[in-house]
Structure formats: structure tokens, C-alpha cells
């Protein structure tokens, strides 16, 4: 919840502060894209280093994705801002 609030507020204040009206779909699309791409890349990296045991221990896999994905999502948000 904290991650979502920080990312939503960062994207809002840096991209859509004065022009959100009529751009709500693009705002939501940008938030979803940041989370989806970051989470997918974290899953791929954990899978490549053999730390994503989805079959045996699904809860541990989910916890690892959340823990590693938390800073990755913030990094993706900052990168989006710098482009």
C-alpha cells in the first residue's frame, strides 16, 4: 500500500499535476505499466538465479518478489521521470 501511494503521488506530481483532466486513462496506464514491467523483470531475475521456487514454495516466491520488487518499482518510476 505504501509503495502504491508513493508511486501514484510521484507520477501525479511530476507528470499530471495540472493536466490530469482528460488524461486519467494515461495516468492509470502509466502506473500499471510501471508495476507490471518491474514485477515481471524481478520474477525473471529471480527465476534465472534459481530463487523463484513457485512449484514448491509459492508463498516464499511471492514474498521474494515483493521484497525485491519494492526498490525496483521506485527505480522504474525515477527512470520514467528522467526520460
Notes on the structure:
This protein has 83 residues and is mostly helical. Helices cover 77% and strands 0% of the residues. It contains three helices and no strands. α1 packs parallel to α3 and α2 crosses α3. The longest helix has 25 residues.
Q: Output the radius of gyration.
A: 15 Å
Task: Determine the strand fraction and express it as a percent band.
Answer: under 5%
The biggest beta sheet reads: none
State the order of secondary-structure elements, H for helix, E for strand: HHH
Structural class determined from secondary elements: mainly alpha
Helix content: over 70%
What best-fitting shape do the alpha-carbon axes yield?
elongated
Give average pLDDT, whole number: 88
Question: What's the N-to-C terminus distance?
Answer: 26 Å
Total helical elements: 3
| Low-confidence region ranges | none
> How many β-strands, per DSSP?
0
Can you tag this structure with a few keywords?
single chain; 83 residues; mainly alpha; 0% strand; elongated
